[in-house]
Amino acid sequence: PDYKSEKVELNSLLAGKKVVILTVPGAFTPGCSKSHLPSFVNSFDAFKSKGVDSIICTATNDAHVMRFWGADQNCGDKVMMLSDDSGALVDFMGMAKQEATMKRSQRYTMVVDDGVITGWFP
């Protein structure tokens, strides 16, 4: 298969919508794979019933790793997997942490309503 990644403007995904964004330290890490991401996949219907239009998961892994992690976690249409491989989002949010081999994010979740953060859960 020809796996292509494309640049996505986060603002376009947030405009006029209520979105939950969860950011994790890394794809395929034990805690993120066993509990954090699955809890959002499994709670998709509950989020929808509260007016959430979409759920986005970000990590500083590249787009291909995020795609395969999403497939491994059965995210399907429930959670959109986005790469923050440059670390721009985690830098902007002040949640970056530099590890020996790469920049990672601290774990956090936010609710964004039409581009405005209305809930913050570090």
Going across the major beta sheet, what is the strand order?
A: 3-2-1-6-7
Characterize the main sheet. 5 strands, mixed
Strand tally? 7
Strand content: 25-35%
Quote the distance from N terminus to C terminus: 37 Å
Helices, by number, come to 5
Q: Give the uncertain stretches in residue-range form.
A: none
What would you call the structural class? Answer: alpha/beta
Report the radius of gyration as a whole number of Å: 14 Å
Q: Averaging pLDDT over every residue, what do you get?
A: 94
Outline, from the CA principal axes? globular
Q: Considering DSSP H and I runs of 4 or more, what fraction of the residues is helical?
A: 25-40%
The helix-strand sequence is HEHHEHEHEEEE
Keywords:
globular, 33% helix, 5 helices, alpha/beta
Written description of the protein model:
The chain has five helices and seven strands. It is an alpha/beta fold and 122 residues long. The chain has a five-stranded mixed β-sheet. The longest helix is centred in the N-terminal third of the chain and has 13 residues, at 30-42. It is globular and about 40 Å long.
Itemize the secondary structure elements and their pairings.
Layout: H1 10-14, E1 18-23, H2 30-42, H3 44-49, E2 54-59, H4 63-72, E3 79-83, H5 88-93, E4 96-98, E5 103-105, E6 108-113, E7 116-121
Quick structural gist:
This protein has helices spanning 10-14, 30-42, 44-49, 63-72, 88-93, and strands at residues 18-23, 54-59, 79-83, 96-98, 103-105, 108-113, 116-121.
